[in-house]
Amino acid sequence: MKYLFILFLFSSINFVSAQTNSEILLNHTWRLISFDNECFGFGPIEDGEFDPNNILLTFSEESGNLSFHTEMCQSIDGTVEMNDTEINFDITNTEGEECVNPINQNYEVGFQCAMNGEYDYTITEENGFYKLLVSNDIFMGAEFTTEVLNTNDLPSNSVSIYPNPVLDKLTIENPKLEIESIKITDASGKHIFQQSANAPKIEIDFTHYPKGVYFITIESKGKTKTEKVIKK
């Protein structure tokens, strides 16, 4: 019986395997924390010039084929091929208008210029979070993390913003907490609307805003949430 137990334990261990790199990519949302790029004369993005929680890179799989998605003002999609040390990004589709804000445009142009080809990559784990570093001899690198970097963020499911895209009236709802303030920023980074409020539900008239991308920042009980909204 003792030997049977040892054999069973050994057999069970053989069935336990670590996640592959592609599984780690697929199972997480990656937040940009640094991006160094010299394409088209754009320099590196400096610390504090962007919100790392709002520039995301996600991966998906269909019929064994990997693909990626990232966006600021434009939506950038493509396919991914990888082995244990190298990864290849191939951009297949770009939609939407370019960012006007140079900082945001820096990332969009940089991603299309720099991260469109073959690169070395590493995935490391620290304190329960993963980091992804992509670079080659020309491109200094982009670094992403699975960690949510701002502990003052409102939970993702605590605020409802609808409809999105919006045509005329935008509704912002937080049934559990009162919304204290709302700020709207356009793609150029210009603040176009700000309102103090103490209500669980607020409606904003969008009819007079031009078509494009806007960022809605909600504050409630010292926590914030920023959401991208498209005006049709």
TrEMBL record:
Residue intervals of the Secretion system C-terminal sorting domain: 161-230
Instruction: Please state the span of the N-terminal signal peptide per the UniProt entry.
Output: 1-18
By its UniProt entry, which InterPro entries does this protein fall under?
Secre_tail
Lineage, top-rank taxon, reads Bacteria
Keyword list (alphabetical) reads: Signal
Q: Name one Pfam family in it.
A: Por_Secre_tail
Question: Could you identify this protein by its name?
Answer: T9SS type A sorting domain-containing protein
Origin organism is: Moheibacter lacus
